[in-house]
Amino acid sequence: MSQLTTHILDTSLGAPARDVSVTLFALHDEEWVQLASRLTNNDGRVTDLLDAAALLPHGLYKLHFNTQEYFERNFTTSFFPFVEIAFFVNSHEHYHVPLLLSPFGYSTYRGS
């Protein structure tokens, strides 16, 4: 499993959000640099965003979730075309960043 994992739960359906594009960026010299990109699996999870042995250097990162494509595929009108969650990595421990999503709102937290 990757040092960084995420999952998306569509709270309007009470179900995982499948096939959502998730992209990881790192801030380097005041520019966001793409590090990895994956689709959520059938359980709404991305567990292999990084190689299992890879450790992120301390710094500022963000996850970009392409929510518009997900809602369009499901014939649902939504307000947010994407969600970006910025966070600090300051240790080599595991980081889990969940996204609770609905067509007109979202929330997140540091998971385990």
Helical content stands at: under 10%
The fraction of residues assigned to DSSP E strands is: over 45%
Give the helix/strand class. Answer: mainly beta
Domain module count: 1
Supply Rg: 14 Å
Describe the model.
With about 110 residues, this protein is mainly β. It has one domain (about 5-110): Immunoglobulin-like (Sandwich), CATH 2.60.40. It is built from 1 helix and 9 strands, in the order E-E-E-E-E-E-H-E-E-E. The chain has one helix at about 65-75; strands at about 5-10, 15, 20-30, 30-40, 45, 60-65, 85-90, 95-100, 105-110. Strands 1, 2, 5, 8 and 9 form a 5-stranded mixed β-sheet that branches. Strands 4-3-6-7 form a 4-stranded antiparallel β-sheet, covered by helices on one side. Strand 8 and strand 9 form a beta hairpin. It starts with a strand and ends with a strand. The model has no long low-confidence stretch (mean pLDDT about 95).
